[in-house]
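Q: Protein A?
A:
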Amino acid sequence: MARKGVQKVKTGCITCKLRKVKCDEGKPDCARCTSTGRRCDGYPPRQQGAFSWDELLGKRPIIPAITSRHTTQEGRALEYFRCVVAPAFSGWSEDCFWTRLVAQASSMEPAVRHAVVAISSIYEQIGDAVLPGDFLDSPNGRFAIGHYNQALKQLTKTPDESVVLFVCVLFVCVEILQDNKDAAIAHCRHGVSIFNNVKDSGSAWTRDHLLPMFVRLSVFPFFFGGTLENFPGLDGLDWNNSAPHASLDDSRFRLDLLVSRGVRFIRASDTYKRDTPSDPQISETMREEQNRLGLWLDRWFEDFTYFTSTNIPESEAMSICLLLQMKYLVSKIWIAVCMDDTEMGYDQHLSSFQQIKDLAELAVASEHTSSSQPAKRLPSRSKFMFEMGYMPLLYFVIIKCRHLETRLAALRHLASLSAHRENFWDSVHSFSIGWSVIEREHGIEFDTL
């Protein structure tokens, strides 16, 4: 026999559920309460992990309005992230990871929200590249680290590996902001290992939005202590996709795949350097991989050139086009020379070095011509960028090219195009080393450029 009376209420505001009446679920206050003069106590939060990624990332305001659930300081940090941090982190890309996905997920997943508050609070305290030495002992520092610890705690309650991967990117960011190389690499290693285990059964959303991020993050550890033995590669990727490029972000992802594989190859080639005591013979496998990467890079450039000729980039997209071409040229040079037993091999690539210099000059010009659209400007000279920009590419030219005029031009462009910090690369440090190397190798001294 069916139960008599009103059907049990499972949804609705807290007040209506206590009264056991049907709620119209109006927001922010339901009409059932307000029309009778009662106070609507709002709605209980959904359990962590109860949201699908479609719900998390559907169309809605980037950052929800600050509510009583947020402290004033926390609400301010979330707003600062939306207005300042997310656009700076996005750089030149069309990717919406920072400007939309992170911001929206922060309203649904506590671990994401706490991590975003930590990132925002730390970023705001950064000067022209570094945190103040007493930051961790300051009230702002304790606030940021407190939220970071809360994010770590919340993550242990999350069974969804997609959420774990998502927050892992944010944890890498927190550690990079604090210049903690080992901790950032450890988080990145953990994320890559998880991704390798879940990618076949993971959601399409994870592959579309998190895979490109982890491909790019898999590069920086090899410049700051990571080795082939202690840092895993991403498995089962389509390194040589022959389909036409669909967008600039698609072009970027395909090049990033090749760069990620190329950097691992370059580190594997360290065995063949001239200062290696055993002086091993270069294996046929290594030669085949070198040739394969060179062919794939050239094919990428052909496809990219066709795409940009048939889909003329708008002026605000010019910076990413120039950056991708520079990254392609640096990758080509380095992969071609990495197994040579002397540095003389770089001399054969002077024309490519000069092309990189010319592309940087176009980027400087693009910076000036886009100044009338500040929302779309190249984010150069910002205090921090999460990912690699112009700096490491121009630094490569400064250190490896032996043509004085090209090196000096690259040094000038590094000073004008680079953010103060790009990932762990520091512009002041890079500029100073480049200046010193040029003076020493060319036997000159100069006061200014």
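Q: Protein B?
A:
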Amino acid sequence: MGRDQRADFEEFVEQASPSLLRTAWLLTGQVDASRELVQAALVKTYVVWPKVRRPEALAYARRIMVNHGTDTWRRTRREALVDEVPEPRVTDSGLKAVEDRHEVVRLLSMLPTQQRTVVVLRYYADLPESAVADMLGISTGAVKSAASRGLARLRSVVEAETEGEPAAVTDLDDRRRRQA
């Protein structure tokens, strides 16, 4: 890779990293895992950088990140659950924003991987259904279905918690079956 291409890639990394990191954090719910996911995506993007069309570089890196994350989740299929989330080190003015972010990540973690990925890409990354479908290698209808089911599940969790019930995903599935 030539000096100009290297400088071009470094500029891309500087501009794209915050967006990629936020998306990865929403997908994984963990700071360290999201950093690793972004790093892996950027390494793979660097390898093919001379072939990447610049206007599509962010979408390309995001697709690599989602695919790498999916591969990792399929391999591990384990979650490390904790009883309590450690307290964030922030001032009171930033505490509400941090609590909201933790709540979003907690709620997203209740979704199956594909639904979580679709919801994040559609509503956080603001990608059109066709782009999400291409990125995940599924049909547009599957994107619509996963988004609809994911949002419905999130609504159910929030409603259950508002009513004072602890919201376990299996409880929500059982409640739906009883209502049907």
